[in-house]
Amino acid sequence: MQETRLDTDRILAACEVIDPVFLNTPLYRCEALEPHLGCAVSLKLETANPVRSFKARGTELITSLIADAGASAVVCASAGNLGQALAWSGRKRGIVVTVVASRSAPAVKLDRIRALGARLELVPGDFDQARERATALAEHYGFRLVEDSLDIETCEGAATIGLELADTSPSFDAVLIALGGGALATGVGHVLKALAPGVEVICVQPQGAPAMTHSWHSRQVVTTDATDTIADGVAGRNPIPAVLDDLLLVADDAVLVQEASITTAMRLLLHHAGLVVEPSAALGIAAILENPTRFAGRHVATIICGGNVDIDAYHRWVGATPGRRDRSRPCS
Ligand SMILES: Cc1ncc(COP(=O)(O)O)c(C=O)c1O
Asked: How far apart are the CA of 135 and the centre of ligand 1, in A?
């Protein structure tokens, strides 16, 4: 296989640096979900940690290197979860953290970034505008810019999930991975291709934020003008060329799912797995719902990658079940 930017030995070494609270997360077969999906399903749970997402695996790595290099201030653009994770890891190491996020990011994510002691700057527009502002702040103040998915540590931190998946016996037939900037998919994909090459690596994005998936299929960067999805964690418009190159080497497929499948998947995870997840974390289950024949009879793992969701929005999405409305309708 052609080489990605990632390095398996560095990923193994990363496990010594990342706070153990983020490592060796639960991985279990969720039989209660299976009748609804028509295949064996295992969940890799990345929500039961202090920042409720996988992103701290990467920020632990990057802040430890930054602290060793003597830098004391960092800035990142974030849809919310990276900022929260960077705030957590930076606080632990005495690094001053600035996060730039969209004003429309979920309040729960913004509140937690502030609560963890980071300075938060909000911009109008979306994540890509936040990226521009973070770059400008880094240039102006000399802060170290942390760029999700481009900085190799964000990918190699996420890749430690791949080590934990590859260590599982018997192995899975396929792993479904939420795709945003690509740190998670390139990280996990790299390790699976290196250590468990028989596992199919499938990336999942919403139809309303398809830039990286379109790029993967056309083997060149495709940008979009806007995004329209509830899965805020994966809603980017401008894929990074180096990340796309890596993704082309490690992903076997990239699929798009509809918003209705995401909310159905969130509801299934609540009702049958007892899990409150944010929309991005339901993408894998949504992909199974949209193509049950592809997965029938196979054992599929999916990473439950985040649980930071505004509770009112969550109730709106998960509560609006046709079944429940039907039940409350008077008999005719
Ligand atoms: C919950 C969640 N899932 C998936 C992703 C996408 O990860 P990546 O940007 O590494 O592709 C993110 C990104 O922040 C996220 O917060």
From this structure: 20
CA-CA-CA-CA torsion sign (243, 245, 249, 253): positive
The pLDDT score that the predictor gives to residue 71 is 86
Provide the b/e sequence for 78-90 (b: ≥16 CB within 10 Å): bbbbbbbbbbbbb
Residue with the bigger pLDDT between 21 and 331: it is: 21
Upper half-sphere CA count for residue 245 (Cβ side, 13 Å): 9
Tell me which residue of 130, 128, 141, 30 sits closest to 96, measured CA to CA. Answer: 141
State the closest ligand 1 atom to the C-alpha of 155, by its place in the atom list counted from 1: 10
Average pLDDT taken over every residue of the chain: 95
Q: Which protein residues touch ligand 1 with a CB less than 6 Å away?
A: 53, 55, 79, 81-82, 148-149, 158, 178-185, 233-234, 278, 280-281, 305-306
Task: Tell me the CA–centroid distance for residue 294 and ligand 1, in Å.
Answer: 24
Average pLDDT of span 18-42: 98
Burial (CB < 10 A; 0-12, 13-18, 19+), residue 202, is buried
Q: Please report, for the chain, the start and end positions of each structural domain, with discontinuous segments joined by +.
A: 8-53+153-318, 56-146
Indicate which atom in ligand 1 lies nearest the CA of residue 179. Answer: 11
Atom of ligand 1 nearest to the CA of 182: 11
Ligand 1 atom having least distance to the Cα of 177:
4
Q: Domain 8-53+153-318 maps to which CATH number in 3.40.50.1100, 3.40.50.1950, 3.40.190.10, 3.30.565.10? A: 3.40.50.1100
Question: Does domain 56-146 sit in CATH 3.40.50.1100?
Answer: yes
Distance in Å, CA 270 to ligand 1 centroid: 20
pTM for the complete prediction?
Answer: 0.95
Summarize pLDDT for 48-69 with one digit per residue, the tens: 999 999 999 999 999 999 999 9
